[in-house]
Amino acid sequence: MRFKFQARDNAGQSVAGVLTANDLADASRLLRRDGKTIVALAPEGRQQIKAKARCAGGKMKVKKDDVIFFCSQLAVMVDTGVPLSDSLDSIVQGSSPGGMRDVICDISEQVKGGSDFSGALEKHPRVFNKLFVAMVRASEASGMLGTMLQRVSEYLEQDRDVRKRVKGAMIYPACMLGFCVLVVTALLVFVLPRFEKIYAGKGAVLPLPTRILLGASNGLVNYWPVVVVGLAGIGCGIYYLQKTPRGQLALDDIRLKLPVIGPMIRKACMARSLRTLATMINTGVSMLDALNLTAEVAGNHYFSLMWRQTAGKVEEGASLTDELQNAPLMPQPITQMIAAGERTGQLGTVMNRAAGFCESELKVSIKTVTDMMEPIMIIVMGLIVGGVAISLLLPIFSMSKIMAH
């Protein structure tokens, strides 16, 4: 392949030209071998990536999959000896226009300007969280950036898969519940008013279930603006409530105590916490920093509180195992595994296995919940729709008995 380049030689003079190389990394290596400082480099016929080019603001939303792909690409390139700045430029060149490309371009400019890679990442907190930045900073100190990026990529993939499984398990019952609400609303608004006219002409006393149902129908038909405003108010109230510390605390408590979903959420939070802690420990992050960062990404206030309290006790000199044994959210088998890892000096490895154990249990729980939800929702819908139908037919049965006598 032919590559166009702009560079500066040892004397600081600007030079430009075309060279032949196998790929972008090979072209970069050839220029550096000749003592040149690369200003811009790109395959011939394409727009060059300039070191000081202005990037867009990066206001577009960045997907987690884009971050994972970026980590994987950068890990491979850094491991094969391509300099970080050249690797970033190459990724920018191969990326589609969008938020992630703008972010990588900005990071590339900062790195070329002398900033640390972790410092450049830290300026994009909506894309790279504190955990990501801490792991990269630890790798910079140890000189294992490529290995670290691969571990980060694997961690993000596992975290994404766990989240998808949990969300997938909740989508089906939510859809069934929404369908059930629509069916009942349609019966109350369109079907019941017709029956009310039939019953009104008979002058008979209607059964209690029918009166309740007709009352609900009249209320919905005659006062629907009030109902809509009330439901919107409740929705807005819940939305803003969950933004407050008390609201988040209450919702997290409800999630953990739900009869079927609660245990699944516990396992998801536990798997995520252990995987995070294991990854941090294996990459050389201190125990206190690892515990505090795990608290930030735990996904539930009560799990975050458990890890923060543990960090406080460990800072005072307590043993990690002793503190976790007193934590009600920590299962006993997991505590025993962590104790074994602490005794043998293989804490990171053991925690990875414990996280795998929790993820396996989570898969089983999700399958169980999914298998249970289908018949449960069918039964619930049958009871609701059947109850409405029976309430409508009860007066007809009563009238038939009266006419029979």
Structural class: mainly alpha
Q: What's the order of the H and E elements?
A: EEHEEHHHHHHHHHHHHHHH
For the largest beta-sheet, the strand count, sense and barrel status come to:
4 strands, antiparallel
Name the poorly predicted regions.
Answer: 46-58
- Mean pLDDT over the residues: 79
Helix count equals: 16
- The residue fraction in helices comes out at over 70%
Distance between the termini: 99 Å
Describe what you observe in this structure.
By secondary structure, the protein is mainly α. Helices cover 73% and strands 6% of the residues. The chain contains 16 helices and four strands. The chain has helices at 24-33, 64-79, 84-94, 99-112, 117-122, 130-142, 145-200, 208-222, 224-241, 245-257, 261-282, 287-297, 301-315, 320-325, 332-344, 347-404, and strands spanning 2-8, 14-20, 37-43, 49-50. The protein has a four-stranded antiparallel beta sheet with strand order 2-1-3-4, covered by helices on one side. A hairpin with a 5-residue loop joins strand 1 and strand 2. Helix 7 (145-200) runs parallel beside helix 16. The N and C termini lie far apart (99 Å). The relative contact order is 0.08. Mean pLDDT is 79; it is low at 46-58.
